UniProtKB/TrEMBL annotation:
PANTHER family: FORMAMIDOPYRIMIDINE-DNA GLYCOSYLASE. Belongs to the FPG family. This is Formamidopyrimidine-DNA glycosylase. Residues 17-109 form the Formamidopyrimidine-DNA glycosylase catalytic domain. It catalyses: Hydrolysis of DNA containing ring-opened 7-methylguanine residues, releasing 2,6-diamino-4-hydroxy-5-(N-methyl)formamidopyrimidine. InterPro entries: FPG_cat, FPG_N, H2TH_FPG, Ribosomal_uS13-like_H2TH, Znf_DNA_glyclase/AP_lyase, Znf_FPG/IleRS. Residues 252-286 form the FPG-type domain. It holds the Pfam family Fapy_DNA_glyco. It comes from the Bacteria. Its cofactor is Zn(2+).
Amino acid sequence: MRYHHLHAGKRYREGMPELPEVEALAAYLRERAVGRAVQRFEVASFSALKTYDPAPTALAGMPLATAGRHGKFLDVGLGDDLHLIVHLARAGWLHYRDSFKSPAPLKPGSGPIAVRVRLDDGSGFDLTEAGTQKSLAVYLVRDPAEVPGVARLGPDALAVSRDEFAERIRGRNGQVKGVLVDQEVLAGIGNAYSDEILHAAKLSPFALTGKLTDEQIDALYAAMREIETDAVERSVGQKAAELKGEKRAGMRVHARTGLPCPVCGDTVREVSFADKSLQYCATCQTGGKPLADRRLSKLVR
């Protein structure tokens, strides 16, 4: 049995899959699964399934018609009017199997497996979640807009024009790092690629959006387009098992604390928060001045 892994690495610090990885995942499903029919839709973790109408049993015999995304949400179209919407969160993974060991249905609480979709050719995929923080979310809906997170999304990061980008970034007061990852402002950018975008744009993650000059907005928009487009091109078409390594290989500062910046050679630094961190290059982004590490500053008071 071959076991394909379409997920960000468990130990790799970028957390949840972002726009490029979800785009690659959708492309893989379009190539491998679209056109097959659902044999059985099995739920082992009822906390992951956020909807109850239609019932999972209604999917038997339905064809997988499409696979796409809304920001970081995966959207698998079923039949004429149903959508399987998946938000993988931080520890959610999608495993594609060419075959399953057992035809027996999943039992509730089957380890990390939350949902299994069996297809009519014997293949299929599992949606799994590691760890104790259960955030994987699966929805069966007739309209993707029924999913609250999808309904709140701003325009897709790769579909927005420069002028609309400027309007949306400046329209939300705050530090540029936080505004970039706000899914209501732009859909698809997360912690990892926002670090890369800010590094390429030579901007401090703590720069205030209301004070960004036109030149800085131009640089930020160009960096977003370049970073995200390049990541999509590198990810789509990769073998599933190589997706994690491809993402890691493309990073210049994210998850590279202590390593040299590939642009200037300075040491990549980190700012830690309660449940995440950001990485940056002081020489490239902050005029050589290190940013205060919030977690460390609390310890030394």
